[in-house]
Amino acid sequence: MVDIAVLKPKIGETLELTGWVFNFRSSGSIYFLQLRDGTGRIQIVFSKSEVDDATWEALQSITMETSVVVSGLVKAEPRAPSGIEMQGVSCRILSLAGEYPISKKEHGIEFLMDNRHLWLRSVRQEAIMRIRSEIEFALREFFYVRNFILTDSPEFTPNACEGTTDLFEVKYFDDVAYLSQSGQLYLEATSSALKRTYCFGPTFRSEKSKTRRHLTEFWMLEAEASFMNQAENMQLQEEMLSFVISRVLERRDDDLKTLERDTTFLKNAAEGNYPRIKYIDAIKELQKLGSDIKEGDDLGADDETILTKQYDRPIFVTEYPVEIKSFYMKPDPENPSYVLNADMLAPEGYGEIIGGSERIDDLKLLEERIKQHNLPAEAFSWYTDIRRYGSVPHSGFGIGLERTVSWVCGLEHVRESIPFPRLINRLSP
Ligand code: 4AD
Ligand code: MG
What we know:
CATH superfamily of the largest domain: Bira Bifunctional Protein, Domain 2
CATH architecture of the largest domain: 2-Layer Sandwich
Strand content: 25-35%
Number of helices: 13
Bound molecules: 4-amino-1,4-dioxobutan-2-aminium adenosine-5'-monophosphate, magnesium ion
Oligomer: single chain
Number of domains: 2
CATH class of the largest domain: Alpha Beta
């Protein structure tokens, strides 16, 4: 048995394929079967006069998504998108499918989401999943090559990392635990052991945001390095994203075409040279563009959209006011009302895909911040230990996988970027 994806060089060979029927039609003594096997799609043409009765009979009973084993001769077919088709020799049904709920007609989004387990079989969803996989693999490769050690963070945590408002609380025997909002605090510990570390796993936030950018469970790759400052941190992020985008352009070109993705901005992103814009300047620019944002406000989704539309590649917005950012961010020594941080915003209106910063390495200041943010000092004592025993300057960031996939694929909504999205109003399938 062979994958459809590797059939092209096998013209002239008679081979066996397995897969699912995604379409079929017949005209008298000719039967056209459209087969997908998850690696590709091909048309198989059967002539009644050239196949045995069992095969012809099987073909007559086929329904959408029936699973089959077929054999046939691989032929060049310039009119086919893949350049090949197959002359059918035999067809055997593995499992005859019942009436398939998804048809060629337009379905509403809620219907498709209810049938997500089946919707994933469509050409478009397949393409998105392959691109997602490519991005995950490229991210891991990038960090592996740079000697970052993978140290996965726990998902059950005793305390908050990114603020206490959007924590999922779960029963933990006779106690409570919180699902991880970020693996960062643990990475700060592992990077003091291994210098450069990263983690890549699910992250949970009970944000009551019903937007096209928010999931309640999403995947985040986080990286942390000892002795890395914020300028180096941004450089690392830029190199990482350029590498990942180059990889997708190189290896998933067919999938980008399936999605009819205009790749102009992706190509720019692969080149690097991402502008760095100070928060203060971003506010001024936004005001000029008609936003009613004021100094001290966080950038809303609409602001990010307007701002990123001014640039032809990702941008960094740097040095936000202390008050609107997380407790662990290091103040700029020259201007302590601002922190040494950056959000990376994806172009074309997509907005924030990365959040990162240099971390507070001074024990006293960190303890003060924990207090100011009303965080339980006791639960953070292991974290402050990192400053007690050989504190060093260090920085890191987190990239949201689904937001990145959404931008790369040009999706309207983040729900299509993950196999089974978890949203404020959706926990199934
Ligand atoms: O900016 P955030 O909150 O940063 C952190 O969690 C840091 N602790 C990371 C670090 O420095 N190690 O989240 C990082 C990224 C965002 O830029 C976004 O891409 C994604 O995580 N993200 C979400 N993606 C989907 N749905 C949500 N609800 C998300 N919240 C954050
Ligand atoms: Mg953020």
